[in-house]
From TrEMBL:
Organism this protein belongs to: marine sediment metagenome
SUPFAM superfamilies: FabD/lysophospholipase-like (SSF52151)
Domain PNPLA: 1-160
Protein name as it appears in the record: PNPLA domain-containing protein
Keyword Transmembrane: no
UniProt cross-references to Pfam families, sorted A to Z: Patatin
UniProt record, GO biological process: lipid metabolic process
Keyword terms of this UniProt record: Lipid metabolism
Length: 274
């Protein structure tokens, strides 16, 4: 019951970014879960006419952002990051740094409400939620940003770096930082064979998942090495592949979460958190 009370910083990418904003705004985890259960079909609303218009994702995004904006507006209203009860760090991907820059490029953008020169306290929660969750192909870009998952699918290290930002003065000692990392579930994937002489066609079905899931496991490894026993991750195994927009699997995902053995996690929380 004291988990959120004793939490200082909440970090999340994409849909996890929206969840982080909700928790930081004071909503309970149950409220945030119910928001997704009730709103998923509206967020991923589609029609045959829309599919034809976009040539089934070939020339246009599969879904619009209008429903998502309405849902976020209902939850957050005109609340800004500076109004949140907790500190947040929400990654997105800035597709264009602008023509006035000496070196014009795309780059990571972390929206946060820490008090420092590059803070984003004036940003509206609705806008940040849309920017971090604008998954390419599924949704249009928002204000020049797309889904933070393209660069930070596991944002745990972003949270650690934000906590240690020396620009705000002496950072918090590592020994005083405890991190609970919650994943969205992992699928069992592998490539069989020791000496594969494959070209683009045979690597194509695997390479995206290798990059995304490999990056997630890399961050997990780094946090373990840096924080040691002060770090704990929960990331259940999914028995099957579940699409990002497959709302029909929501009850199944909840069941998987409810069946996860949380005894090690509760023990860790008792020793390190509450």
């Amino acid at each position: 019951p004291n988990l959120m009370r004793d939490t200082d910083l909440i970090v999340g990418t994409s849909t996890g970014g929206i969840q982080a904003l909700g928790l930081a705004a004071g909503y309970s985890p149950l409220h945030v879960r119910e928001m997704y259960v009730e709103s998923a079909k509206d967020i991923f609303a589609d029609s045959l006419l829309d599919d034809i218009k976009n040539l089934w994702k070939v020339i246009g995004a599969d879904y619009g952002t209008e429903n998502m904006r309405e849902i976020l507006k209902f939850q957050f209203g005109d609340k800004q990051l500076k109004d949140l009860e907790k500190k947040v760090a929400i990654p997105s991907f800035d597709l264009d740094s602008g023509p006035d820059r000496k070196f014009r490029t795309w780059k990571l953008k972390v929206f946060h409400n820490f008090e420092c020169p590059d803070g984003d306290g004036e940003e509206f929660c609705v806008d940040v939620g849309l920017r971090t969750s604008a998954a390419p192909i599924f949704f249009p870009t928002v204000d020049g940003y797309c889904d933070g998952g393209v660069v930070a699918n596991n944002p745990a290290l972003i949270g650690l770096a934000q906590s240690l930002d020396v620009r705000r003065g002496p950072g918090m000692p590592l020994t005083q930082i405890n991190m609970l990392s919650l994943g969205a579930g992992r699928s069992a994937r592998w490539v069989e064979g020791d000496n594969l002489d494959w070209g683009a066609m045979r690597w194509a079905p695997h390479i995206l998942y290798m990059l995304l899931e490999g990056g997630i496991s890399m961050i997990d490894f780094q946090c373990q090495q840096i924080l040691g026993e002060n770090y704990h991750r929960v990331n259940p195994i999914l028995p099957e592949k579940i699409g990002l927009d497959d709302c029909s699997k929501t009850p199944e995902i909840i069941e998987i979460a409810n069946e996860e053995d949380l005894k090690p996690s509760l023990k860790w929380l008792e020793e390190h958190w509450v």
